[in-house]
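Saturday, quiet lab. Running sequence design on the structure tokens for the scaffold JK sent over.
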């Protein structure tokens, strides 16, 4: 596609900048496995035919290294390379999808019929434990991670919400905690206008707002340390100042969550597991149980479809809790200060 432009090298560089470094690295790693298959079986990788894709899925089955969700990610890399090159997506062909369903059935049989653990919503009570740890910790990086996870929960963990926020993107005003966020979609910066959010701060006398207090503590320490206003608020303070200007991975909240689950063990319900998207699902589910309107939850999640919100993130049979009221009650219409 770039060969038809007046500056192929410049066009290629422009396209490459559309993907963040970690995303490019991940896609290219998966693409290399597809190239390995094509080289070994004398198949054309670009554009790939449906029969090539079926053969690749069969090859991965025989390699026995990927679970069905992982295989989907490998196919996504193949689809992305084809789209960038201006070719139709071969992974959408009916026979390729049918082969993928067969892969899932095979994987289930191999596991003895044992289904994969289901991702569970992260309860608000865990976020309060995270806040208590962050407010009492003398480990500055652990404190940053606690604050980042708490802010991610308050923002329904939009991709890059806490990971990529700079000190200058946060302000504490009479209306609450005001933020501006870069828009991300599938870990890519979209280039659209920034999202602006106001997170109300509880003002009940004698009742501290732990999430807001923790974020404010980290925000003020950043300023007191003389760090650059455009430096990332939750980057490792041990990093050199120039490095702190670069965006963290949009999914670094996953790493924060895994570390805090080790420090603050949280038994998952039977058949469940806590993963990175448990943060988004937890905030959405807890807010819904409190009576926060579904359109508002969808907006916080960044969804244009309420169907997506209900199908993938909200559990309608969820009991409201005091912890949820403390963390997310700020968004209830009855409590919201506009």
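Result came back. Writing it out in full:
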């Amino acid at each position: 596609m770039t060969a038809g432009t007046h500056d192929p090298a410049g066009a290629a560089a422009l396209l490459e900048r559309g993907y963040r470094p970690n995303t490019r690295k991940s896609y290219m790693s998966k693409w290399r496995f597809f190239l390995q298959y094509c080289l070994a079986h004398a198949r054309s990788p670009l554009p790939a035919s449906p029969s090539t894709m079926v053969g690749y899925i069969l090859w991965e089955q025989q390699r026995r290294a990927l679970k069905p969700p992982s295989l989907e990610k490998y196919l996504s890399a193949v689809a992305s390379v084809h789209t960038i090159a201006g070719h139709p997506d071969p992974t959408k062909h009916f026979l390729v999808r049918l082969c993928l369903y067969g892969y899932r059935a095979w994987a289930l049989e191999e596991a003895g019929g044992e289904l994969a653990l289901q991702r569970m919503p992260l309860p608000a009570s865990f976020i309060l434990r995270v806040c208590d740890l962050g407010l009492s910790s003398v480990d500055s990086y652990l404190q940053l991670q606690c604050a980042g996870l708490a802010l991610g929960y308050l923002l329904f963990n939009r991709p890059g919400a806490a990971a990529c926020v700079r000190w200058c993107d946060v302000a504490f005003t009479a209306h609450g905690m005001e933020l501006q966020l870069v828009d991300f979609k599938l870990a890519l910066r979209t280039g659209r206008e920034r999202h602006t959010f106001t997170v109300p701060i509880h003002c009940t006398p004698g009742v501290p707002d732990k999430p807001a207090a923790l974020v404010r503590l980290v925000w003020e320490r950043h300023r007191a340390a003389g760090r650059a206003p455009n430096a990332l608020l939750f980057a490792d303070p041990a990093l050199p100042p120039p490095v702190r200007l670069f965006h963290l991975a949009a999914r670094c909240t996953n790493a924060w969550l895994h570390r805090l689950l080790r420090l603050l063990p949280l038994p998952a319900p039977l058949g469940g597991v806590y993963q990175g998207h448990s943060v988004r699902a937890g905030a959405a589910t807890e807010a819904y149980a409190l009576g926060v309107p579904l359109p508002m939850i969808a907006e916080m999640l960044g969804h244009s479809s309420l169907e997506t919100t209900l199908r993938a993130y909200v559990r309608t049979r969820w009991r409201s809790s005091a912890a949820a009221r403390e963390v997310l009650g700020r968004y209830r219409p009855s409590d919201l200060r506009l």
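Notes for JK: Strands lie at 118-119, 170-173, 176-181, 184-185, 188-189, 195-199, 272-273. The mean pLDDT is 87. Ask whether to fix the surface positions before the next round.
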